[in-house]
Design brief:
It is a single chain. The chain is an alpha/beta fold. A four-stranded parallel beta sheet has the order 3-2-4-5, with helices on both faces. Strands 1-8 form a two-stranded parallel sheet. A two-stranded antiparallel sheet has the order 6-7. Helix 3 links the parallel strand 2 and strand 3. The protein is built from 21 helices and eight strands. The relative contact order is 0.12. The structure holds zinc ion (ZN). Zinc ion binds next to helix 12.
Amino acid sequence: MPNPAQATIDPIVVGNDAFSRLASYCVERYPDLPITLIADTRTVSAAGNEVARVLTRAGRTVRSIILRGDNLHADELGLARVLTASPYGPSLFVAVGSGTITDITRYVSFRLGQPFVSVPTASSVDGFASIGSPLVIEGVKRTHAGQTPRAIFADSTVIAAAPAILTASGFGDLLGKITSIADWRLGRLIRDEPFDEAIAARATAAVDRCVAQVDAIGRREPQAVETLFHALTDTGLCMIEFGESRPASGAEHHISHFWEMAMLRLGMATALHGMQVGIATAIVAGFYQQLRGLTAANVSRLLADRIPLGEHPQEAEIRAAYGPLADTIIRDHAEYLEFSANEQTMIAERVVERWDEVLEIAHTVPGPEEVKSLLTKAGAPVDPALLNLPPDQLAAGIRRAHYLRTRFTSAKLCHMLGLLETV
Ligand SMILES: [Zn+2]
C-alpha cells in the first residue's frame, strides 16, 4: 500500500511527452493557478523556455524567475532571491532544473503554502522525489522541512542531453546507497536504530539495476539514463516512505556534507553533490574493507584502549575541524558526546558480541577499488584531490564528518576502534 506522501507524487513521468503531459496536468489539476517557473541560466535554455512555451500555449499565465550566476546554492541567498521575486498569493511553482533549483523551489513554495511540481533536467541526484529540503543555513548543511513535488515530469531527451558530469554525478549519488544501506544495517545492529528490510531491499535493487548498466550510463545512452533517473527517484521514494534519509544517506553523505560546508566557508565553488558522494563512497568502502580485516579478538583489543564515542576531548577535535561552526555541531551532537561510561561500555560490548554480524554487513560492500572502477566507467571522478580542497579539510571530512549526525555508521565504528586516524 503506498504511503500518503508517495501517493501525492502523481504522476511521475519520464518520457518524450513529458512537457505536454505537464501542460495537461496543470490545466486539469490547477486550472486557476498562475504558474511561477524557476530555472537558472542553463536550465532555462535546456528546458525552461520550452516548458514556458508549452504552458503558455495551453493558456496558462507563466511568470519566470531565472537565477543568474554559476555558483548557485540552496542557502540564504538562493532562497532570498527566489522568495523576493515570487508573486504574492496563490501560484503553482514549477522547478526546472537539477538539485539546487528543485531544493530552493521546494522550500520557498512550502513556506509560501503553495504547491510545486518538478521538471528535472538531469539524472544528477536523488532529491527530486523528496520531502525534505537540504539547505545550508549559517554554514551548516541540514535537512529542513519541505514538501514533495505534486508531480514529476522528466523529458527523456533533456535528461539524456544533460552534461555528462551531471549524469555521472547521479551515478555517484546512487552508488552511495551501497554504503548508506550498510551503515543503516550497522545502526540497527549496534544501536537498535529504526530499520525497514523491505525498503532496504528496494533501495539495493535500484542500485543493482544501474550497476548492471554502468557502461551504458557512461555512454549516456538514453535508456540507461532513464534507468538511472528511475533508480534515483525510487531511492528518493524510499526515504519518503521511511520518513528519514537513512535508506539513502550514510557516512558517505556526511563526508560530502562536511566537504561542501568547507568549500562554502572557504569561498570556493562547490563540487556537484553526487560527484562528492561518489568519491566519499570509495573512502567509506575503505572503512568496510578495514573492518573486514579484523577478528572479534582484534576488535576487543582495539576497544580496550578505544577512542570513546562520547567524552570531553572530542570537543577539541570538533573545534579544530569545524572552526566557527563548532558550537552548533557540539550542541547537535550532545546525545553522543554525553554518553556515560556505562553506555560506552555497553556499545563496545555489543560490537564485540555481534562482530560476526558486523562482518556480514561489511561483506555487502565492494572494495574501494571496485567502487572506483564503477565510478570511472560511469565517467565520474574518483580522486579527492579534484575537489580542490586543502588537504587538511579533505582529511577532516574523512575523520570528523561523523560528528554531523547522531547515527551509528561505519565512520562511528572506525572512530571507536581508532582506525580513522590512519586513513
Ligand atoms: Zn545524495
